[in-house]
Amino acid sequence: MNIKFYRNYFILFFAFFLILIPLSSATISMKTDVKALYNLGDRINASVEILKEEDIQGIMKTRLKCQGYELEYFSTFIELKSGEAKIIVLPELPVKKLMLGECYLDINVEDMSGQMIYTFSSGKFIISDKMDGVVIKSRDSILPGESLILYVDINPTYMSESTKYFSANLLSEVYKYETNLEQFNYTLQTKNNIKSGEKSIAVFVLDSYGNSYEKEVEFSVTAVPTRLGLNISSNAVNPGDNLIINSYLYDQADDVLNEKIALSIFEMKNTLLKKDVMSGETFTYQIPQFTPPGSYSMKIIYNNLNEVGKFSVSELKKINTYLQKGLLVVENIGNVPYYQNLVVDMGGENNYNLTYEIDLKPAEKKEIELSKFVRTGNYSFSVYEEENISDININTNLSLEDDRPAYRKISQGLLSITGNSIVAYQPTRKVYSIAILVTIVFLVIVVAGRMKKIKPKNKSEKEIEEEFKY
Questions:
Q1: For residue range 354-385, what is the model confidence (pLDDT) as tens digits?
Q2: Are strands 147-155 and 173-179 parallel, antiparallel or unpaired?
Q3: Domain 319-432 has CATH 3.10.20
Q4: Which of helix, strand or coil describes residue 457?
Q5: CATH fold for domain 228-313
Q6: Is the model more confident about 350 or about 45?
Q7: All CATH 2.60.40.150 domain ranges in the chain, comma separated
Q8: Residue 46 per-residue DSSP state
Q9: What percent of the chain has pLDDT over 70?
Q10: Quick count: other Cβ atoms within 10 Å of Cβ 367?
Q11: Average pLDDT of the residues in 288-301
Q12: Within a 10 A sphere around the Cβ of 191, how many other Cβ atoms?
């Protein structure tokens, strides 16, 4: 029984060995021109070289396998003698859109009974509708209105001629060009009012097979100062008012540039202000208190650009009055000469109504010594113009004391006062007051000196009577 078992085992092993002989005795190699990448419109070319050590008759089948797509596109009968080599050239296979993705060729050899003798697969390759290429720009930065040249080089995998549809999208503006060349130049003309800053051109090339190439090209546009703008908050102002000034420097696209601008305010040859201000920022200028009334110009300058605005300063007739150590101070705080009669009404133990003539230039002040004309005491008083009878300043419960120097009391005591007019003490009259005082002192000294020179004599009553007769 053991002998029968070993005999059957040997027969099965020998039969299996006979089956393997055709597979192991054949050497089949594949020589192919398969590329790593194919574009639409290209063709797949491959050849198969078969070398077999024994005679073979059978069918070679070639199948293209892609992602989601398969095609058995070639089948042929082969007959080889032992040791014979044969090269089978596969027909060109046009690349179509259905084949997009990763693919490979699968080759099977079967004998006449349909039994598989050999199988082989090519390396994987890519079928794509994206072409390789490069775009080079002529410059990194341009001025508004200048041209930018694009050097385009498209590299499809196919060798045949095709139409290239070129387009460049810049700021929603599409520039188009059509050519059969794979290397070409395109000149892109920018607009004069193009916005400044970093820009991007979307380059797109489509060929007649449906392949495309895309590229983003970066460049910058330099801002060009084009004009100035000047806004003034008011056309007419009073001294002391704030004037709000906005200065703007615009570029070719009317965008505001952040640059320094020279600002000046002047009237004829009289310049009130010279200052650098920043474009787009607000500058507040306070009109000086004593600025003369009239028309003024405001000018801003940036390089060879300038803009002029105008405003006027209104006439302001105004005074300020206050009491200081017994002196009524009248100050012209307007911007025009002040010539008016002021009435001073004082009420207290005694009532006084005094009129004083005021003639002041802007910024001038004068003092009225009230203690010369009224008694000391507590008073409430008001000051108003004689013509319009409008209160200028009112002070109440003010104490008035005669704190004048002695020499002034003496000198001013000799002055005459007529009617209700007040003669105000002026610093220029100090010399006059001192002169009067010195004159009085001199006369006293002279009289005293003459009295000392008279010597008394012993006279009789008769002699004395005689002298009185004369």
A1: 888 999 999 999 998 887 878 777 888 788 88
A2: unpaired
A3: no
A4: coil
A5: Immunoglobulin-like (2.60.40)
A6: 45
A7: 132-221
A8: B
A9: 77
A10: 17
A11: 94
A12: 14
